[in-house]
């Protein structure tokens, strides 16, 4: 069975600041699943490193004020296409990210404050019937 996974959780240096959030519990899923890595922000055309961005209503705005909604939406579409092509049963995505977060995300103020909501990619996957878990919910899988 294949599952979609945020590449930064697999140890790829694709985060906005150029590092990763390698997670051993996510990597251990390799014993049970084939992990298909995606990074929606890179796949949507953004460079690494890049300005951090946060969701603000229906838009995604970078810290320098640039509207990066289009790139985030393109990355979400690419992740959905990969999930459908690979027949991914579900996704394990990075918590709180404006792309990958599920349930709780940063609030758009760049202060570290959080609000209820989903990242753009997580939302698109959920809208298309693909279950999404964060790395904090592995015990629920
Ligand atoms: Fe990780 Fe997702 Fe951000 Fe890429 S878009 S760095 S996979 S949280």
How many independent structural domains?
A: 1
Strand content: 15-25%
State the end-to-end CA separation.
Answer: 13 Å
Bound small molecules, by name, code or SMILES, are: iron/sulfur cluster
Strand elements, count: 8
Pattern of helices and strands = EHEHEEHEEEHE
The averaged pLDDT comes out at 98
Return Rg in Å.
14 Å
Instruction: Quickly give the structural class.
Output: alpha/beta
Uncertain ranges: none
Largest sheet: 4 strands, parallel
> How many distinct helices?
4
Pfam family, one: 2-thiour_desulf
Protein name: DUF523 domain-containing protein
InterPro entries: 2-thiour_desulf (IPR007553)
Could you walk me through the main structural features you see in this protein, from its secondary elements to its overall organization?
The protein has 141 residues and is of the alpha/beta class. The chain has one domain (2-140). It is built from four helices and eight strands, in the order E-H-E-H-E-E-H-E-E-E-H-E. The chain has helices at residues 24-27, 40-43, 69-86, 120-127; strands at residues 2-6, 34-38, 53-56, 59-62, 91-93, 104-106, 114-116, 132-134. The strands form three sheets. The chain has a four-stranded parallel sheet with strand order 2-1-5-8, with helices on one face. A two-stranded antiparallel sheet has the order 3-4. Strand 1 (2-6), helix 1 (24-27) and strand 2 (34-38) form a beta-alpha-beta unit. Helix 3 (69-86) packs across helix 4 (120-127). The radius of gyration is 14 Å and the shape is globular. The two termini are 13 Å apart. The mean pLDDT is 98. Bound molecules: iron/sulfur cluster. Iron/sulfur cluster is lined by residues 6-8, 14-15, 39-41, 94, 97, 99-100.
């Amino acid at each position: 069975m294949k599952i979609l996974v945020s590449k930064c959780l697999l140890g790829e240096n694709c985060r906005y600041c150029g590092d990763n959030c390698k997670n051993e519990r996510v990597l251990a899923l390799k014993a049970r699943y084939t992990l298909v890595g995606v990074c929606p922000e890179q796949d949507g055309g953004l460079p690494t490193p890049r300005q951090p961005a946060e969701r603000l209503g229906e838009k995604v705005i970078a810290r320098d004020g640039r509207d990066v909604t289009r790139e985030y939406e393109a990355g979400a579409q690419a992740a959905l296409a990969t999930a459908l092509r690979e027949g991914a049963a579900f996704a394990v995505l990075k918590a709180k990210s404006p792309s990958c977060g599920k349930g709780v995300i940063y609030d758009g103020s760049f202060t570290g404050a959080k609000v209820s909501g989903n990242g753009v990619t997580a939302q698109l996957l959920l809208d298309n019937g693909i279950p999404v878990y964060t790395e904090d919910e592995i015990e629920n899988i």
